[in-house]
Every structure is written in structure tokens, then in C-alpha cells.
Design brief:
3 copies of one chain form a homotrimer. Chain A has 132 residues and is of the alpha+beta class. Chain A is built from 3 helices and 8 strands; from the N terminus they run ββαββααββββ. The longest helix of chain A is centred in the middle third of the chain and has 14 residues. The interface between A and B is medium-sized, with 33 and 35 residues.
Chain lengths: 132, 132, 132
Amino acid sequence: MDTLEVSTDRREQLVDITSDVELRIAAAGLSAGACVLWSAHTTGGLTVNEGADPAVAKDIEDWLASAAPPGRQYRHLEGNSDSHIKAALVGPGLTLVVSGGRLQLGRWQRVFFCEFDGPRTRRVLLQLLPAG
Amino acid sequence: MDTLEVSTDRREQLVDITSDVELRIAAAGLSAGACVLWSAHTTGGLTVNEGADPAVAKDIEDWLASAAPPGRQYRHLEGNSDSHIKAALVGPGLTLVVSGGRLQLGRWQRVFFCEFDGPRTRRVLLQLLPAG
Amino acid sequence: MDTLEVSTDRREQLVDITSDVELRIAAAGLSAGACVLWSAHTTGGLTVNEGADPAVAKDIEDWLASAAPPGRQYRHLEGNSDSHIKAALVGPGLTLVVSGGRLQLGRWQRVFFCEFDGPRTRRVLLQLLPAG
């Protein structure tokens, strides 16, 4: 198992971690299988979406902020229930396909750590699984 | 493949199944790899979030209930379209990291079965995959 | 790694791809493990839900259309920010359980490619992982 560190600058922020994931897969020498990524946090998650135009990540951040605003009345008293809800919506993990020794993503796809209660330093676990 | 049974008490309820998952991994003796969990239901899902304060799970239940209320006008006539929508939002499965013979979760993370059309007895499939 | 092609007819459409997935698993002869599915697109995803009554898939399409309407003010200027947001909500991938040489789904569960910016021809990657 490997661990990636991700530093975030804002309370809500999608951070592109694709290059780091690709480096770890190359270093491990996995030819075919899957790469499991896991956000070890309850107020951050992982998603894959377009990275070419940064406006897409910002639109996703904005949509989530408006769907689950921080100011609403929640039961949890730490002021970050919205962050927990957003993490549940994007999800805590991803299982990515590896083939030919490389991460297989679509042309416009990039892997993002989703920060919903930053800024912080976050940990993403990485586990490689061989194909059958 | 292993199967966990989960009994739910309310129509909408996040049930902490972490200990059961940990027991199965220990019993199987997997040292490193992944644990795939799968909700075999279309009105229930799986998520990971904070378990220390039960108010967080309740806030997630409440947010989903308000985002997809049961009373709205839907096409499906069984009265549980909201349950199907909630299951799609949290997702039907999780792939968890196992390392050092143990489930690798963040400090505050717990695994929850998400009931959206209970109370019922539910099945969660568990499959272990070895690391490369 | 295998690739499925999915043709979609509408801008937003859940397409049942279960039979195709089952055929690939049977052809590969995997007895026990997992089947990773991956949508190679940023405006389409994958989910599992009820397939018996097509109204359920339509209710999910409608709910997403009303939660993230195309007409809203977004930053991304290609007119499909709503499609990217919907893809983030349902998620880009699934890890399905295989046991006894067969895909293990609940009685009412079917696998859907979720089109959010069609009609188009889409690619779903499929990778098989053996159990431990």
C-alpha cells in the first residue's frame, strides 16, 4: 500500500492528483489490473472529471456548495455537516483500470481529490490489484 | 464470497457495519489487497463517513430526505422512487483497502449500510481481492 | 482489459448494459473475483438500480435533470456543466462481485451506463480481478 499526500488551499477545492497516481503505478511496475484510491477522511472524497477547463471543477464545487450550504441547520455541531454530506455524494474511493502498464482514463478525465473542509493536508491510500 | 446480513429499523437509516466487515477480513486472513462490498438492493447503498457523532449520519439521512422527498410526483408507482434515487446518489458498492491484515480506514471513518426503504433485512456481499 | 461500446439515443439516458457485462465475464472464464467497469467519459457515468420497471431509470434521469438543470448559470462555456455534475454524482466506475463464474447482483439490480450529454457512442472499460 502506498500513500499520497495532498495539500489543499481552500475550504472547498478539487485538486488534480492524476500525475502522482500515474507515477506510483509506473514505479510499482503493475502491468494489468486496478488501482484502488481511498480518501482517509470523512470531509473529503475522490472523483474523476474534466481537467482541461478548470471551470468544470469549479462548477462542481459551486453546485455542491449550493446543494448543501454550510449555513443550513444541521444536527452535528462542528459546523461541517455540509462537508460530510458532500463527501458522501462524490464518494470516498475510486477503482481505476490499469492496462499496458498505464492508468486507463478517457481523453478528458483527470483524478481529483475533493476537499470539502480545508485547507488541510490530506492522505489518499493507493492499493494495486493484479488482473486475472 | 461472503455475505453479511443487516437488519434495519427505520425507513431511512445508516447502519454501522464496520466491525462485521473487519471480522470477516480477519477470519479470511487476507494480508494485503482490497475488500469489495456490494449492496444487493436497489433501495439501499453503502457509504463511509463519520461514526463518532451519530448526528453526522442523521444529517446525511435528513439531507437526502429533503433532496429526494418521498411525496414528490414520480413515474414509478411503488412509492419508493425516492429510495432508488438515494441509492444511486450514495452508490451500491465500496472497494476498501486492506493492508497489514487490517481494513485501512481514516481515524473517523466507519462503513455504513444505507437503508432507504426499510425496515428490512438486507444482504451485503463481500469479496476479497489480493494485492499484486 | 476489455471495452464495451454503448450507443445512446437521448441527451440523458440510462442504458442497461448488464447482458453485455455478463457475456464478457463468461467469455473470460473468471470464476471468483471482481469486475471493474469504467466510463471513459466526463459527461457519463455508471450506476446499478432497478431494471424491471423502466420508470425507475426515468425517475433517476428526471431527478438529476431537476437537481442540475442545463439552463443554469455555469462557468464552463460548453453548455454541458450539468452533464459533468451528474457524472460526478452517479460516479464514473463500479466494482462488481463475481462468484461461481457469474456476476452477483441482487434480484432487481441491473447495470446502467448513464448518458448525460448524448446522443453519442460511449466506451466502458472492463477489467477482471481474481479473488484471493
